[in-house]
Design brief:
The protein is mainly beta and 125 residues long. The chain contains 1 helix and 11 strands. Strands 2, 4, 5, 6, 9, 10 and 11 form a 7-stranded mixed sheet that branches. The protein has a 4-stranded antiparallel sheet with strand order 1-3-8-7, with no helix packed on it. It is globular. The model has no long low-confidence stretch (mean pLDDT 97).
Amino acid sequence: QVQLVESGGGSVQAGGSLRLSCAASGFSISDYCIAWFRQVSGKGREGVAKMEFNGGTTYPDSVAGRFTMSADYVEKIVYLHMNSLKPEDTATYYCAATALRWACNQGDAPAFTYWGQGTQVTVSS
């Protein structure tokens, strides 16, 4: 069964760094499109990084140049490296996966099938 488990969240000061991990089981991450989303209470889930089937990564302008997504295909762990963190990066971060190309292309949260439980990131000013 497909399972995603996030870890690595915590509290940091603005300008600091964190690395989030998403451990996958029940599937090969090379066969899936994996993405990181974040959610602030009362708002929808916002995509912050996506690794497509070919391994290419995309980022929205809000995090481009600060966040980097990578993967260890042997250990089946996907990482989100977050640098130069800002208070507005405070959110619960989720990793998600889909085996569907159209869903990956669309990139919106409802299109992704599998989700982790989330990990909290708090950035103080």
